[in-house]
Automatic annotation (TrEMBL), chain A:
CDD domains: ABC_NrtD_SsuB_transporters. This is ATP-binding protein. InterPro entries: AAA+_ATPase, ABC_transporter-like_ATP-bd, ABC_transporter_ATP-bind, P-loop_NTPase. The keyword S-adenosyl-L-methionine does not apply. GO terms for molecular function: ATP binding; ATP hydrolysis activity. Residues 5-236 form the ABC transporter domain. The keyword Nucleotide-binding applies. It comes from Micromonospora arida. Keywords: ATP-binding, Nucleotide-binding, Transport.
Length: 260, 271
């Protein structure tokens, strides 16, 4: 398999109170093309920093990130980002939000309209295409953000706790919808979450990070079949992996590693 | 002058979408009408019991009719409005680009901000003596002072608007491929529009207040001048006509801007 994203001993140091703070230290991580990788870890372990480095919104202070074997220099439309705070443009309608990136890419009017409509339908916002973001619920806003990111056809999707602000029920629906979308429009996805269940349910692989300094603690494969269904979510295999991830996240001791 | 603009709410991710007040509009308006009627009633009573030469509503209405008939009221209003609108238009036309410049370029901010902050602490009226000495007693000093008042309040809020644009909004545009020019045109400008409009309203209020005072000091026509004349002749009804006209015109202009604001910033989340 070809590597889509490669973190090569990526480090990021911040100056905090005059002293250096290692938000990330020597992270090595390869994400394959069309892979769905979730990242979990305690708060402040550098998950967002890692994602923002891949997005080109934060510069590493050491090492580098390659996307398609090229070092990342600044943000670009081939790497879509979905932010936790949705970050929709509140003065634009759903459709205009989704068309935003296409307009920048100078896609013609008719084609733009067609592509936007396709993704609006895909995320189930057909009836709200001409609504302003303030009229949408949290879940609908996040779906709009997903459609907007998909519309410019990025090879990579970087998602930073996109469902963090949603209630449990909406969250499960959004997970299913995201997987359905990913199933029909394959992308490489790097998805940050606080929720261990979510991490396991979505991913091919779960990356567990540790803090101080921020680093990769353990990478856990999820050998569960797609499409993931409720049956998968309730299966013993699922709980086995979930438990393993849980322990990796909440009992980060140096002698960690033995599976059950 | 306290013109720190209270920032309009751009967006809070989890603010609830407030329903528009249900059928409150009509009772509210009724209360407004009652308040006006009551006010005029109290005024009438005060005039009747003879508060030292206070003219009643009737006397004022008669004088208003006279001034309207001989054209003085209209001429004065036009003269005053003209000054305000020219000064206000020039002030905001300069304030908006300067505010953007200050918000966007650190260097511009460093160069301009000290002057803006300094002149903000001087009431525009205090500049009048200097302006008259330097620019004569024609229209120029008055328009200049109004220009200054409008400029200072609008530039500050435009600047605040630009610097308070949500970072993630800018990042969202960048990851969709936007360069600096696109970010500016399609994110910074719309996101700071609410601030600019609030600044324009504050600026208009400041301009209007400054104008009347400027006319009290030096003018040959205008609402302020007319009141100044009336004061010399102890003509209280004319002063009332002047005051009420100033209030009504100010209110109309403010409502016009408010309507524009609602039109342009209807996308905002309101509590
Ligand atoms: N601009 C910055 N300046 C200083 N320190 C920073 C900056 N950005 C992040 N940090 C620090 O780096 C560490 C990692 O931050 P990051 O946002 O990546 O954490 P996270 O894993 O995403 O946390 P959470 O799960 O709470 O979102 C934190 O301790 C944070 O304080
Ligand atoms: Mg984070």
């Amino acid at each position: 398999m070809t590597e889509k994203i490669s973190f090569r001993s990526t480090s990021r140091t911040f100056e905090v109170g005059g002293r250096p703070f290692h938000a990330l230290q020597n992270v090595d991580l390869d994400i394959a093309d069309c892979e769905f990788v979730t990242v979990v870890g305690p708060s402040g372990c550098g998950k967002s920093t890692l994602l923002n480095i891949a997005a080109g919104l934060v510069e590493p202070t050491g090492g580098e990130v390659l996307v398609d074997s090229r070092p990342v220099r600044g943000p670009g439309p081939e790497r879509g980002v979905i932010f936790q705070q949705y970050a929709l443009f509140p003065w634009l309608t759903v459709r205009q939000n989704v068309e935003f990136g296409l307009q920048i890419a100078k896609v013609g009017r008719a084609e733009r309209r067609r592509r936007a409509q396709h993704f609006i339908d895909l995320v189930g916002l057909t009836d709200f295409a001409d609504a302003l973001p303030r009229m949408l619920s949290g879940g609908m806003r996040q779906r709009c953000a997903i459609a907007r990111a998909y519309a410019v056809d990025p090879g990579v999707l970087l998602m930073d706790e996109p469902f963090g602000a949603l209630d449990a029920l909406t969250r499960v629906q959004m997970q299913d919808q995201l997987l359905a979308t990913w199933g029909s429009e394959r992308r490489t996805v790097m998805f940050i979450t606080h929720d261990v269940d979510e991490a396991v349910y979505l991913a091919n692989r779960v990356v567990v990070m540790a803090a101080r300094p921020g680093r990769v603690h353990e990478v856990i494969d999820v050998d569960l079949p797609y499409p993931r269904t409720e049956a998968v979510r309730l299966s013993p295999e699922f709980s086995r992996i979930r438990n393993r991830v849980w322990r990796a996240v909440y009992h980060q001791t140096p002698q960690e590693g033995a599976s059950q | 002058m306290p013109i720190d603009v209270q920032p309009p709410r751009i967006r809070g991710p989890e603010t609830t979408r407030a329903a528009s007040p249900p059928r409150r509009a009509i009772p509210l308006l009724a209360w407004n009408v009652i308040a006006v009627v009551l006010g005029i009633g109290i005024w009438t009573v005060l005039a009747r019991v003879g508060v030292s030469g206070l003219p009643g509503p009737q006397a004022v209405a008669v004088r208003a009719g006279e001034l309207a008939m001989d054209g003085t009221l209209l001429d004065d209003s036009i003269a005053s409005l003209r000054r305000v609108l020219i000064g206000f238009a020039l002030g905001t036309a300069l304030a908006i680009p300067v505010g953007f410049l200050m918000g966007w370029y650190q260097t511009a901010r460093g160069l301009i901000e000290p002057y803006v902050q300094f002149f903000r602490t001087i009431p525009p009226l205090a500049v009048i003596p200097l302006a008259i000495l330097l620019m004569g007693i024609g229209e120029t000093p008055k328009i200049f002072v109004i220009f200054l008042a409008a400029f200072l309040s609008c530039v500050v809020s435009t600047f605040q608007g630009v610097v308070s644009v949500d970072r993630t909004m800018i990042n969202a545009a960048r990851v969709l491929g936007a360069n600096d020019a696109v970010v500016f045109r399609r994110v910074i400008v719309p996101a700071s529009t609410p601030f600019i409009l609030v600044g324009m309203r504050v600026g208009l209020g400041a301009a209007w207040a400054t104008l009347v005072a400027a006319e009290l000091i030096a003018a040959q026509e205008g609402l302020g001048y007319r009141m100044q004349q009336a004061q010399i002749y102890y003509d209280l009804p004319s002063i009332f006509v002047g005051l009420i006209t100033i209030g009504v015109l100010g209110l109309i202009m403010d409502r016009l801007l408010l309507t524009t604001e609602k039109r342009l910033t209807g996308w905002q989340e309101r509590r």
